[in-house]
Amino acid sequence: MSSSDDFRPDPELQLVATRGADLCTKFIRAKFGKDADYSEAFLPEVENILQLLHLSMPASKPSEDDIEQFCTMFGSYLGETYRRNRGGEWGVSDGNTPTLSFGGGYKSFPWARVYKRLINGEEDNVHHWYLGMVQYASDGGSSPSLSGFSSPPPLPSSSTPPTSPTKKGFFSRLFGG
Fold first, then answer.
1. Is 91 helix (H, G, I), strand (E, B) or coil?
2. Which stretch of DSSP H or E encloses residue 159?
3. Paired residues of 71 in beta bridges
4. Which residues contact 19 (CB under 8 A, 6 or more apart)?
5. β-pair partners for 44
6. How far apart are the first and last CA of the chain?
């Protein structure tokens, strides 16, 4: 998280995020039978679902497109939950990185955070990250525990094509692929 001096609001990205979040709620309802209601109380459930996805990745070998779709859906859901409950604005920064500007002009990268969660596992817990954003905004950006969140993680290397899954794993079954 960092100051938003290069942040540019983007109404089109707001539409993408809204649609992505709505797709996420439908996905969660269809695949897990739970109603994602944009409440902060539901965020531990989102974390649990992302843990299941993370654990399934070695066996299912999802394509980068599948991972990107999950990052967009779940990142949009997280960002929309924050925006609807605490305010904020979607836009771009750091090049063209999808960004949520929040509390006092600070910014976060929900799509990139979900990517880190899927790849790294519990060390990038999205519920804790969300609570950290709340704390960061309420402290005026002075929370030292969040200093490592000033830029998004590196994007996956496109030089190596993803391997095709040899058997249907969790991701493949979820997408019907």
1. strand
2. none
3. none
4. 76
5. none
6. 36
Per-residue confidence (pLDDT) for residue 4, from 0 to 100 = 43
Q: Label residues 115-152 b or e (16+ Cβ within 10 Å = b).
A: bbbbeeeeebbbbebbebbbebbeeeeebeebeebeeb
Sorted by sequence, the CB contacts under 8 Å of residue 138 that are 6+ apart come out as 103
Which residues, at least 6 apart from 41, have a Cβ–Cβ distance to it below 8 Å? none
- Kindly tell me if the per-residue pLDDT of 34 is higher than 60: yes
Question: Residues, the chain, total?
Answer: 177
What is residue 160's three-state secondary structure? coil
Q: How confident is the model at residue 105 (pLDDT cuts 50, 70, 90)?
A: confident
> 70, exposed or middle or buried, with CB in 10 Å at 0-12, 13-18, 19+?
buried
Q: Render 10-42 in DSSP notation, one character per residue.
A: -HHHHHHHHHHHHHHHHHHHHHH-----S-GGG
∠ Cα 76 1 114 (to 5°): 35
CA distances in angstroms from 54 to 33, 38, 100, 123, 125, listed in the order given: 19, 22, 24, 12, 11
Is the separation of the CB atoms in 162 and 171 below 8 Å?
A: no
AA identity, residue 65: D
Q: How many CB atoms lie within 10 A of CB 153?
A: 14
